[in-house]
Amino acid sequence: xxxxxxxxxxxxxxxxxxxxxxxxxxxxxxxxxxxxxxxxxxxxxxxxxxxxxxxxxxxxxxxxxxxxxxxxxxxxxxxxxxxxxxxxxxxxxxxxxxxxxxxxxxxxxxxxxxxxxxxxxxxxxxxxxxxxxxxxxxxxxxxxxxxxxxxxxxxxxxxxxxxxxxxxxxxxxxxxxxxxxxxxxxxxxxxxxxxxxxxxxxxxxxxxxxxxxxxxxxxxxxxxxxxxxxxxxxxxxxx
Length: 239
Ligand SMILES: [Zn+2]
Ligand SMILES: [Zn+2]
What we know:
The chain has 239 residues and is α+β, with helices and mostly antiparallel strands. The protein has helices at residues 2-8, 71-74, 92-95, 146-151, 158-166, and strands at residues 14-23, 32-33, 56-62, 78-83, 106-111, 132-142, 175-176, 199-205, 219-224, 232-237. The structure holds zinc ion (ZN) (2 copies). One zinc ion binds next to loops.
């Protein structure tokens, strides 16, 4: 039965890549969760504009070392995500509505590596994240969420949707490319430059490679303008 549904949407099948990780920090330019980010020698650890504390470092992807099928898709340089977790006296996440894309208390960027900063130290965070370096990628099939299917004009019966959900399409967990797993409704932001829809890059789930929960078991997504590859956003939603 599932095969029948997958056949119906076979034209929408995409590959997604699940990160294979090892404990510990890698080199400054490696893809990783937490640890030491690449910083150029003319800059400091990014600070939150609201509380002025250093922001927690979540993720870095060296775009030139991704699976080769995705390399042209996301551009060049090193993609990074910093997100403020400070809650003293108030949570910047709440002050900035950081579940919405383009919140002030986060930094999602592509950095062009030049000379690395020397002696980078990870600031002392209240909830330190152990670093994990991404040592490889496991390719899997992925299919759109039924909300996305609906928006693409694909009509499925309730039982077909149930089959897709039971098969865990789109995949949950952390992944590169493929389709976002939406907890609520689809939230593709629009590019601040060209206003076109930004597309899915990477999914960060709750309590997977990072000891962090997005609200109540939420899921977050990094998106990028397909034209303006330095335009990135992050948003999350929970039940
Ligand atoms: Zn802050
Ligand atoms: Zn754009």
